[in-house]
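Hi C.,

You asked whether I'd gotten around to modeling the 407-residue construct. I have! Everything is below, sequence then structure, no commentary in between.
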Amino acid sequence: MAKGSNVAVSAPAVRVEMGWRRGAGIPDADASALLLVSGKVRSDADFVFYNQPAHASGAVRHEGKRTDGGAATDTLHVDLARVEREVEKVILAASADGGAFGQVPGLYIRLLDAADGTELARFDSTDATVETAFVLGELYRRQGTWKFRAVGQGYDSGLAGLATDYGIVVDEPRHTAPTTPAGTPPAPHTAPATAPVRRSKVTLTKAAPTVSLAKQGGTSGALRVNLNWQTRTQPRGLFGGARARAAQGAVDLDLCALYELSDGRKGVVQALGNAFGSVHRPPYIHLDGDDRSGSVVTGENLTINLDHRHDFRRILVFVTIYEGARSFADLHATVTLRPLNGAPIDFSLDECTVPSTVCALALITREGGDLTVQREARYLVPDRGVSPQRTVDRAYGWGMNWTPGRK
């Protein structure tokens, strides 16, 4: 299967096999599952992994690892007939132990009929880099049936980061060493009670439009920018009676970034023209792919390498409608900027009241050694024959030359 594609699942129960090649220096990996209602778990009990191997409903269980020569697998069992009615989606994830998934060769996920072992779907993940946790796939309900989607979305914050993203409260122990007088044996150490770590979100408003990444703790590592959306039928009369083109998934939004580096180089990172950028080379910004579903799990994702923040002069994060709608209205699109360290910063595109196909969302500028995020929320309406990219370029004086592109 290709990343982002989906297939119907007719089997009442499936075995989910995650596999990879073993070898010296290759990190170990672990499979896990999250049961979601409205995009979040209801409680920590909806997280199935090696330390909590079975869901209370009996619908999902972790069956453990097997090795065979140079191959390894970790397996989950999902009884779709027993998944509670309110559960809309089962996330199928993996976490790496001792390294990143860029060091794990041959990573794949297979969906098998639990009754006879027939392979129903397979997705091979080939583009991992610094990620330490991965959503490889998802089982989701659609019009009374179950479907499987190949996802391939990574996190560089490990299993804890992935779990936190879906509503799990992660306890992080305080690492303190007891002190004793010289020559005195230390007393038995009792782990202190720890409060759950809850990172509050930052919402930029017209009254408070800017935030310092340094003050939020976002001074290194990766800044992940996620776009997701959904399609709902527009009411009659909106923008001349326009309606959403089709059922959910027909609308295709693109997450993009204009950049200007400290040495004066300028460019764009976007799916159009396959300008996906790079994390470890200029422009130090990377788009992980072109998602066309708007899934809350996948969407589209930019990674900005904050270890090279001194190489940035300014970055403009913007969103375009590639096809399927004539406005952001009623698409319920959201963008989240999530530093490796620090609170996530949320943006909503629900404020659109004009027939706009391009939104300048956030301007990130360097001031000394700090990056400041400024809320823009500018819904631009391109002139006839003018592309969304050229429109946002003119509005911000980027001064680039544009040619038609395809994807």
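If it helps when you're writing up: Helices lie at 158-165, 388-396.

Thanks,
B.
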